[in-house]
Write a structure and sequence with these properties.
mainly alpha; 3 strands; about 55% helix; about 10% strand
Amino acid sequence: MSTSWGYGGAGGAVENLLRQAQEQQRRLAEFQQQRAELRVTGESPDGLVRVTVDGDMKVGGIDINARAMRLDSYTLAESLQAAIDAAYASFAERQQELMTEMLGGSDLVRRAQEGSLTPDDWFRQFGVDLSDPTRGLRR
């Protein structure tokens, strides 16, 4: 009676899972690096204020057109808020694009945001069926 605990057996399944985990770790690190380097700009509807948001989601720059100085303080504040909102919306959109690239499909991103992505679904995209207790034991 022989057991298949060699490379084609459980050891092979473990190695395969480790490779997949390392690949996901690499992809996550790449996503985090891209997010850290992200810079997006939002502009007020009147075009008088531009705001830049960095990868830490901090306002990193504010450009106010000289014509904006003619506005009353309330209108200037509205323009500034609109530019900030536009910058954060652009950041969220770009971050979503990066997530989609990392996860390999917009359906996975949508389901992850909804909270309906299960571990089984996640691993299935890599060809791993968690419900199969004999996975990796067969040759």
